[in-house]
Structures are given as C-alpha cells and as structure tokens.
Amino acid sequence: MPIAFKEWAVTVRALAEGEQLLTLRKGGIRETGKHFALEHDRFFLYPTFDHQRNDLVRESHQPELRRALEEGVWPEGEPPARALTTDGGIPQPDRVRIRAWAEVAGAWTVTDRRALDALTPFHVWTTDYAEKRLAWKRRHPLHVLLLRTYRIPRPVTVRVRDDYGGCRSWLEITRDLPFEGTPVLSDEEFDRVSQEIAGIAEANGAPAYA
Fold this sequence. Notes:
Largest sheet: 8 strands, mixed
Order of helices and strands: EHEEHEEHHEEEH
Number of strands: 8
Shape: globular
Low-confidence stretches: none
Helix content: 10-25%
Strand content: 25-35%
Radius of gyration: 16 Å
Mean pLDDT: 87
Number of helices: 5
Distance between the termini: 25 Å
C-alpha cells in the first residue's frame, strides 16, 4: 500500500506550491517509542487538520488557512469561517485530497536554536512553532527534512479512516496513488536552495541524519 506522510493541511499546500521546502519532526505519541524515524525516502503528502493551529502559521501565510480547506471534503460543506480562528475548531473531514508526493533530498538533526532560526525562510511556521518543536523532549534532536515535492496530474480523494488519527507521521493509504507528476521547483532552483539549506545546517553544526 502507498505510504503517506501526515502533515497540517496548510503545510501540505505550502509544500505543493513550492512555498515550503522543510518539515520538522520530533515524534508523536502513536509512533514507536514516541520518536520519529525516517522510515521512507519517498511518500505522498497527507493533509490533516489534527492540531493545526492558525496562530502558529506566519502572518504572511495566514490567507492560505482558508484556501487549505480545499484539501478536505466535508459532508455538509466547508467549516464556517469562525472555525479558522479557533484552535481545534476544524473537524476532520470525511475525505482528503492527495495532490502531491515528495522525496527526501536531505535530512539533519538539530539541537541548536540558532540553526533553526537560520532555516526560518524555508517554511511557513512561526518562529515560536519551530522553537516549541525543538524544546519538546529536549534530550532528543529535532529532525529537519528537505523535501523535493511533485504535484500529481490529478488530485486523488481518499477516505479518512479512524486509524489515521492521532500524533503519527506515517500512514498506509488503502488505494493506488501515482508516483508521477511535475516538480514544484525547477532542477536549477531546487539545487540552488538545497545547497543554501545544507550550508546553513553545516555552518550551525547540524549533522546529517544517518
């Protein structure tokens, strides 16, 4: 079965539009040992509204919160506008749209706030969100993944199953999905940015993930 990486709907949309290149992960309570493990190097991006918080998305990207509702399908239409201003106010949809997949182009473990601050331009979260991720379970490093994202030709709608819920990174999707499509950034642009990110990680003592 196809493997998907679970991430906030607004983040998936940013990745699929080339507005975000990194994702951050420590691990969730429904993962083995409650720690993140990079188990796959290619996967689909599964949008979720679990724990999505509007106050942890940078102000410049706040308009995308409304547009990110397009990633879900609710039986009675989209949630009302007020749901966007209430953390946890967006119920899980019956189905979600899978419109992109990604491959891991680089991975580092970060323990220093300075490294995290220097990587801020490559994601849409607030500095506070990133620092909360770093501070949680402080003895364990934060995993920073550089993703090369591709849009599939036509979005595929999948049913939201009960076992997809909770704090987990990896899901098995119960229908076929195509590993095909167009990269959201050209080869030249992605190479330039990925070298910049790798340089930041190296300069701030963030070791490559093994």
